[in-house]
Amino acid sequence: xxxxxxxxxxxxxxxxxxxxxxxxxxxxxxxxxxxxxxxxxxxxxxxxxxxxxxxxxxxxxxxxxxxxxxxxxxxxxxxxxxxxxxxxxxxxxxxxxxxxxxxxxxxxxxxxxxxxxxxxxxxxxxxxxxxxxxxxxxxxxxxxxxxxxxxxxxxxxxxxxxxxxxxxxxxxxxxxxxxxxxxxxxxxxxxxxxxxxx
Length: 198
Known about the structure:
Layout: E1 2-7, E2 13-19, E3 22-29, H1 34-45, E4 54-58, H2 64-81, E5 85-88, H3 90-97, E6 101-108, E7 111-116, E8 119-123, E9 135-137, H4 139-143, H5 145-150, H6 167-173, H7 192-197
Parallel strand pairs: 1-4, 4-5, 6-9
Antiparallel strand pairs: 1-2, 2-3, 6-7, 7-8
């Protein structure tokens, strides 16, 4: 199966083209340029849009705007190309890239998104149970490096590839494909705009 996968939930967008479990190409860009990255990816790999058999989109948690951008892009491409879509958690993709590590995404507002007992959660970094020697990856790990390391946690260097939710892992983790409108983002709190209104 030839799959196009992308994630725009964080400040770094990734796109990947995967066929039969093999990565044909991958790009890293800003979320607002994901369509350009996807187009360049297809051209470099020599894959026509008509050869695609499925789309995978990152469902967050992450930036409200980034997640909506990714879902809107997936829905538009699915409609235009007649493709089924699967959603994969951004935290799950981070975890797949560093199997022994704990994924942590910077949620802003002095909070993080992470996995607790396998489920996405939003919390303050001070609330984390940090076991000495545990590896932490993702934008939240980079932002709260001092806190994590002071408690004995291990955070790879800021420029480590382990901090990026690579789209190739989204493609490998995808299992159930279906109509694009059934793929929902993982919201763990209300958007800033809605919060400001109340």
